[in-house]
Predict the structure.
Amino acid sequence: MTAEIIDGKAIAAALRADIARRVATLKSRHGVTPGLAVVLVGENAASEVYVRNKGRQTLEAGMTSFEHRLPATASEADVLAIVARLNADPKVHGILVQLPLPPHIHTEVVLRAIDPDKDVDGFHPINVGKLSIGEPCLAPCTPTGCVMLAKTVQPKLAGLEAVVIGRSTIVGKPVAQLLLREDCTVTIAHSRTRDLASVVRRADLVIAAVGRPEIVRGTWIKPGSIVIDVGINRIASVDGKPRLVGDVAYDEALVVARAITPVPGGVGPMTIACLLQNTLQAAAGVNRAG
Ligand code: NAD
Protein backbone atom coordinates (compact mmCIF):
# COMPACT_ATOMS: atom_id res chain seq x y z
CA MET A 1 0.00 0.00 0.00
CA THR A 2 1.28 3.47 -0.85
CA ALA A 3 -0.31 6.35 0.94
CA GLU A 4 -2.16 9.20 -0.72
CA ILE A 5 0.11 12.26 -0.57
CA ILE A 6 -1.90 15.18 0.77
CA ASP A 7 -0.95 18.13 -1.42
CA GLY A 8 -1.01 21.02 1.04
CA LYS A 9 0.27 23.43 -1.59
CA ALA A 10 -2.66 22.78 -3.94
CA ILE A 11 -5.23 22.66 -1.12
CA ALA A 12 -3.94 25.98 0.28
CA ALA A 13 -4.03 27.56 -3.21
CA ALA A 14 -7.66 26.45 -3.65
CA LEU A 15 -8.54 27.86 -0.20
CA ARG A 16 -6.88 31.20 -1.04
CA ALA A 17 -8.79 31.37 -4.32
CA ASP A 18 -12.06 30.76 -2.44
CA ILE A 19 -11.12 33.44 0.12
CA ALA A 20 -10.41 35.90 -2.72
CA ARG A 21 -13.93 35.25 -4.11
CA ARG A 22 -15.49 35.83 -0.67
CA VAL A 23 -13.42 39.00 -0.18
CA ALA A 24 -14.73 40.32 -3.51
CA THR A 25 -18.31 39.62 -2.37
CA LEU A 26 -17.75 41.34 1.00
CA LYS A 27 -16.36 44.38 -0.83
CA SER A 28 -19.14 44.64 -3.38
CA ARG A 29 -22.05 43.90 -1.00
CA HIS A 30 -20.87 45.65 2.17
CA GLY A 31 -18.05 47.97 1.04
CA VAL A 32 -15.64 46.29 3.48
CA THR A 33 -12.07 45.45 2.45
CA PRO A 34 -10.46 43.12 5.00
CA GLY A 35 -7.18 44.51 6.33
CA LEU A 36 -4.36 42.53 7.92
CA ALA A 37 -1.63 44.30 9.89
CA VAL A 38 1.65 42.55 10.65
CA VAL A 39 4.03 43.90 13.29
CA LEU A 40 7.65 42.83 12.97
CA VAL A 41 10.16 43.72 15.67
CA GLY A 42 13.87 43.29 14.99
CA GLU A 43 15.56 41.35 12.22
CA ASN A 44 15.06 37.61 11.98
CA ALA A 45 15.69 35.97 8.60
CA ALA A 46 12.87 33.39 8.95
CA SER A 47 10.40 36.05 10.16
CA GLU A 48 11.32 38.28 7.19
CA VAL A 49 10.41 35.47 4.78
CA TYR A 50 7.09 34.77 6.56
CA VAL A 51 6.16 38.44 6.65
CA ARG A 52 6.97 38.91 2.97
CA ASN A 53 4.88 35.88 2.01
CA LYS A 54 2.02 37.00 4.22
CA GLY A 55 2.05 40.48 2.69
CA ARG A 56 2.04 39.12 -0.88
CA GLN A 57 -0.73 36.58 -0.27
CA THR A 58 -2.84 39.16 1.61
CA LEU A 59 -2.76 41.44 -1.45
CA GLU A 60 -3.44 38.54 -3.83
CA ALA A 61 -6.59 37.73 -1.83
CA GLY A 62 -7.79 41.30 -2.42
CA MET A 63 -7.18 42.39 1.17
CA THR A 64 -5.23 45.40 2.41
CA SER A 65 -1.84 44.65 3.93
CA PHE A 66 -0.29 46.88 6.60
CA GLU A 67 3.27 46.35 7.78
CA HIS A 68 4.85 47.90 10.87
CA ARG A 69 8.56 47.37 11.36
CA LEU A 70 10.34 48.28 14.55
CA PRO A 71 14.05 47.96 15.38
CA ALA A 72 15.19 45.21 17.79
CA THR A 73 15.85 47.99 20.31
CA ALA A 74 12.15 49.02 20.39
CA SER A 75 10.66 48.97 23.87
CA GLU A 76 7.61 46.98 24.98
CA ALA A 77 5.79 50.33 25.27
CA ASP A 78 6.59 51.07 21.59
CA VAL A 79 5.08 47.75 20.52
CA LEU A 80 2.03 48.22 22.77
CA ALA A 81 1.50 51.70 21.30
CA ILE A 82 1.35 50.26 17.78
CA VAL A 83 -1.01 47.49 18.89
CA ALA A 84 -3.29 50.10 20.52
CA ARG A 85 -3.34 52.13 17.29
CA LEU A 86 -4.17 49.05 15.22
CA ASN A 87 -6.89 48.01 17.70
CA ALA A 88 -8.54 51.40 17.14
CA ASP A 89 -8.11 51.48 13.34
CA PRO A 90 -11.36 50.47 11.57
CA LYS A 91 -9.42 49.57 8.38
CA VAL A 92 -7.51 46.88 10.31
CA HIS A 93 -9.49 43.68 10.95
CA GLY A 94 -6.61 41.37 11.78
CA ILE A 95 -3.45 42.00 13.81
CA LEU A 96 -0.51 39.65 13.84
CA VAL A 97 2.59 40.28 15.92
CA GLN A 98 5.33 38.16 14.40
CA LEU A 99 7.01 35.87 16.94
CA PRO A 100 9.59 35.51 18.32
CA LEU A 101 9.84 38.97 19.87
CA PRO A 102 13.20 40.21 21.21
CA PRO A 103 13.82 38.79 24.72
CA HIS A 104 13.27 42.11 26.55
CA ILE A 105 9.65 42.23 25.35
CA HIS A 106 7.07 40.08 27.17
CA THR A 107 5.28 38.10 24.46
CA GLU A 108 2.24 37.35 26.61
CA VAL A 109 1.79 41.06 27.49
CA VAL A 110 1.81 42.02 23.80
CA LEU A 111 -0.49 39.17 22.73
CA ARG A 112 -2.99 40.06 25.47
CA ALA A 113 -3.06 43.67 24.30
CA ILE A 114 -4.48 42.66 20.90
CA ASP A 115 -8.26 43.10 20.58
CA PRO A 116 -9.54 39.47 20.69
CA ASP A 117 -11.82 40.24 17.71
CA LYS A 118 -8.69 41.12 15.67
CA ASP A 119 -6.53 38.32 17.06
CA VAL A 120 -6.13 36.39 13.80
CA ASP A 121 -3.38 34.19 15.25
CA GLY A 122 -5.86 32.96 17.87
CA PHE A 123 -3.34 33.28 20.72
CA HIS A 124 -5.28 35.68 22.99
CA PRO A 125 -6.53 33.93 26.16
CA ILE A 126 -10.12 34.92 25.21
CA ASN A 127 -9.85 32.98 21.95
CA VAL A 128 -7.99 30.11 23.63
CA GLY A 129 -10.81 29.91 26.19
CA LYS A 130 -13.56 30.13 23.58
CA LEU A 131 -11.91 27.36 21.58
CA SER A 132 -11.88 25.11 24.64
CA ILE A 133 -15.54 25.75 25.53
CA GLY A 134 -16.64 25.34 21.93
CA GLU A 135 -17.71 28.94 21.19
CA PRO A 136 -17.12 30.65 17.84
CA CYS A 137 -13.65 32.16 17.92
CA LEU A 138 -10.52 32.89 15.93
CA ALA A 139 -8.66 29.57 16.09
CA PRO A 140 -4.88 29.25 15.57
CA CYS A 141 -3.89 28.92 11.91
CA THR A 142 -1.56 25.91 11.74
CA PRO A 143 -3.92 23.68 13.80
CA THR A 144 -6.88 24.75 11.64
CA GLY A 145 -4.83 23.83 8.57
CA CYS A 146 -4.01 20.39 10.01
CA VAL A 147 -7.68 19.57 10.54
CA MET A 148 -8.60 20.82 7.06
CA LEU A 149 -5.95 18.59 5.50
CA ALA A 150 -7.17 15.52 7.44
CA LYS A 151 -10.73 16.27 6.29
CA THR A 152 -9.69 16.23 2.64
CA VAL A 153 -9.01 12.51 3.17
CA GLN A 154 -11.94 11.78 5.48
CA PRO A 155 -14.57 14.52 5.70
CA LYS A 156 -16.04 13.18 8.95
CA LEU A 157 -13.42 12.55 11.62
CA ALA A 158 -15.95 11.63 14.35
CA GLY A 159 -14.98 8.60 16.40
CA LEU A 160 -11.39 8.42 15.18
CA GLU A 161 -8.58 7.78 17.66
CA ALA A 162 -6.42 10.88 17.21
CA VAL A 163 -2.96 11.13 18.73
CA VAL A 164 -1.37 14.58 18.85
CA ILE A 165 2.36 14.53 19.59
CA GLY A 166 3.37 17.85 21.18
CA ARG A 167 1.55 20.07 23.68
CA SER A 168 2.62 23.57 22.65
CA THR A 169 0.12 26.42 22.86
CA ILE A 170 0.77 27.16 19.18
CA VAL A 171 0.10 23.72 17.72
CA GLY A 172 -0.38 20.72 20.04
CA LYS A 173 -3.03 21.97 22.46
CA PRO A 174 -5.19 23.89 19.96
CA VAL A 175 -5.13 21.07 17.40
CA ALA A 176 -6.30 18.71 20.16
CA GLN A 177 -9.18 21.09 20.94
CA LEU A 178 -10.16 21.29 17.27
CA LEU A 179 -10.12 17.48 17.01
CA LEU A 180 -12.36 17.23 20.09
CA ARG A 181 -14.77 19.54 18.27
CA GLU A 182 -14.69 17.04 15.42
CA ASP A 183 -15.68 14.30 17.92
CA CYS A 184 -12.36 12.47 17.79
CA THR A 185 -11.06 10.57 20.81
CA VAL A 186 -7.96 12.64 21.48
CA THR A 187 -4.69 11.73 23.19
CA ILE A 188 -1.97 14.34 23.63
CA ALA A 189 1.51 12.85 23.84
CA HIS A 190 4.56 14.89 24.83
CA SER A 191 8.18 14.74 25.96
CA ARG A 192 7.26 12.87 29.18
CA THR A 193 4.99 10.31 27.52
CA ARG A 194 6.03 6.74 28.28
CA ASP A 195 6.30 4.42 25.28
CA LEU A 196 5.37 6.95 22.60
CA ALA A 197 5.50 4.23 19.94
CA SER A 198 2.65 2.23 21.47
CA VAL A 199 0.55 5.39 21.96
CA VAL A 200 1.01 6.34 18.30
CA ARG A 201 0.17 2.78 17.17
CA ARG A 202 -3.40 3.29 18.45
CA ALA A 203 -3.97 6.29 16.20
CA ASP A 204 -6.27 6.45 13.18
CA LEU A 205 -5.07 10.04 12.87
CA VAL A 206 -1.57 11.19 13.90
CA ILE A 207 -0.66 14.85 14.21
CA ALA A 208 3.08 15.18 14.80
CA ALA A 209 4.14 18.60 16.15
CA VAL A 210 7.38 17.87 17.95
CA GLY A 211 10.26 19.53 16.12
CA ARG A 212 12.47 16.37 16.17
CA PRO A 213 13.56 15.08 12.75
CA GLU A 214 11.86 11.80 11.82
CA ILE A 215 11.17 10.82 15.43
CA VAL A 216 7.98 8.99 14.37
CA ARG A 217 9.02 5.75 12.67
CA GLY A 218 7.04 3.77 10.09
CA THR A 219 6.65 0.85 12.52
CA TRP A 220 4.71 3.18 14.86
CA ILE A 221 2.08 3.92 12.25
CA LYS A 222 -1.18 1.97 12.28
CA PRO A 223 -1.87 0.63 8.77
CA GLY A 224 -4.48 2.76 7.03
CA SER A 225 -4.11 5.81 9.27
CA ILE A 226 -3.91 9.49 8.31
CA VAL A 227 -0.60 11.20 9.16
CA ILE A 228 -0.31 14.99 9.40
CA ASP A 229 3.29 16.09 9.89
CA VAL A 230 3.67 19.62 11.28
CA GLY A 231 7.39 19.39 12.02
CA ILE A 232 9.88 21.48 10.07
CA ASN A 233 13.43 20.34 10.75
CA ARG A 234 16.54 21.38 8.87
CA ILE A 235 19.11 18.58 8.67
CA ALA A 236 22.32 18.04 6.71
CA SER A 237 21.88 15.53 3.88
CA VAL A 238 24.59 13.18 2.59
CA ASP A 239 25.98 15.83 0.23
CA GLY A 240 26.23 18.24 3.18
CA LYS A 241 23.49 20.56 1.87
CA PRO A 242 20.72 21.34 4.35
CA ARG A 243 17.29 19.85 3.65
CA LEU A 244 13.92 19.96 5.36
CA VAL A 245 12.36 16.91 6.97
CA GLY A 246 9.31 16.48 9.14
CA ASP A 247 8.79 14.74 12.47
CA VAL A 248 7.74 11.57 10.64
CA ALA A 249 10.09 9.21 8.76
CA TYR A 250 8.24 9.92 5.53
CA ASP A 251 9.46 7.03 3.32
CA GLU A 252 8.70 4.50 6.05
CA ALA A 253 5.25 5.90 6.81
CA LEU A 254 4.38 6.21 3.12
CA VAL A 255 4.07 2.43 2.74
CA VAL A 256 1.89 1.98 5.84
CA ALA A 257 -0.41 4.99 6.11
CA ARG A 258 -3.56 5.69 4.11
CA ALA A 259 -2.60 9.33 3.59
CA ILE A 260 0.30 11.55 4.62
CA THR A 261 1.43 15.17 4.33
CA PRO A 262 4.90 15.79 2.86
CA VAL A 263 7.46 18.21 4.32
CA PRO A 264 7.73 20.70 2.74
CA GLY A 265 4.43 21.16 0.88
CA GLY A 266 2.02 19.77 3.47
CA VAL A 267 0.96 21.73 6.55
CA GLY A 268 3.28 24.70 5.89
CA PRO A 269 1.31 26.35 3.05
CA MET A 270 -1.97 26.01 4.99
CA THR A 271 -0.87 28.37 7.76
CA ILE A 272 -1.02 31.61 5.76
CA ALA A 273 -4.19 30.49 3.96
CA CYS A 274 -5.86 29.97 7.36
CA LEU A 275 -4.54 33.35 8.51
CA LEU A 276 -6.31 34.96 5.55
CA GLN A 277 -9.44 32.99 6.39
CA ASN A 278 -9.32 34.32 9.96
CA THR A 279 -8.84 37.88 8.66
CA LEU A 280 -11.89 37.49 6.42
CA GLN A 281 -13.86 36.05 9.36
CA ALA A 282 -12.79 38.99 11.54
CA ALA A 283 -13.74 41.51 8.82
CA ALA A 284 -17.14 39.87 8.39
CA GLY A 285 -17.63 40.20 12.16
CA VAL A 286 -18.75 36.58 12.60
CA ASN A 287 -16.58 36.22 15.68
CA ARG A 288 -18.02 39.09 17.71
CA ALA A 289 -20.06 38.52 20.82
CA GLY A 290 -23.72 39.53 20.80
P1 NAD B 1 7.48 23.35 20.69
O1 NAD B 1 8.95 23.14 20.83
O2 NAD B 1 6.83 24.51 21.35
O3 NAD B 1 6.73 22.03 21.21
C1 NAD B 1 7.21 20.75 20.93
C2 NAD B 1 6.39 19.74 21.69
O4 NAD B 1 6.93 18.45 21.41
C3 NAD B 1 6.44 19.93 23.21
O5 NAD B 1 5.12 19.99 23.70
C4 NAD B 1 7.14 18.67 23.74
O6 NAD B 1 6.53 18.16 24.90
C5 NAD B 1 7.01 17.69 22.59
N1 NAD B 1 8.19 16.84 22.52
C6 NAD B 1 9.49 17.20 22.49
N2 NAD B 1 10.28 16.12 22.43
C7 NAD B 1 9.46 15.04 22.43
C8 NAD B 1 9.69 13.66 22.39
N3 NAD B 1 10.92 13.14 22.35
N4 NAD B 1 8.61 12.85 22.41
C9 NAD B 1 7.36 13.34 22.44
N5 NAD B 1 7.09 14.67 22.47
C10 NAD B 1 8.13 15.49 22.47
O7 NAD B 1 7.20 23.33 19.12
P2 NAD B 1 5.94 23.85 18.27
O8 NAD B 1 5.95 25.33 18.18
O9 NAD B 1 4.70 23.16 18.71
O10 NAD B 1 6.37 23.28 16.83
C11 NAD B 1 6.54 21.90 16.59
C12 NAD B 1 7.09 21.69 15.18
O11 NAD B 1 6.14 22.19 14.25
C13 NAD B 1 8.39 22.45 14.90
O12 NAD B 1 9.18 21.67 14.02
C14 NAD B 1 7.94 23.70 14.19
O13 NAD B 1 8.92 24.22 13.32
C15 NAD B 1 6.75 23.17 13.41
N6 NAD B 1 5.75 24.20 13.09
C16 NAD B 1 5.32 24.28 11.81
C17 NAD B 1 4.38 25.22 11.46
C18 NAD B 1 3.91 25.30 10.04
O14 NAD B 1 4.04 24.38 9.30
N7 NAD B 1 3.38 26.39 9.59
C19 NAD B 1 3.84 26.08 12.42
C20 NAD B 1 4.25 25.94 13.75
C21 NAD B 1 5.21 24.97 14.07
The CA atoms of residues 129 and 284 lie 21 Å apart. The pocket of nicotinamide-adenine-dinucleotide is lined by residues 142, 165-168, 170-172, 189-191, 193, 196, 209-212, 215, 230-233, 267-268, 271 (CB under 6 Å). The mean pLDDT is 96.
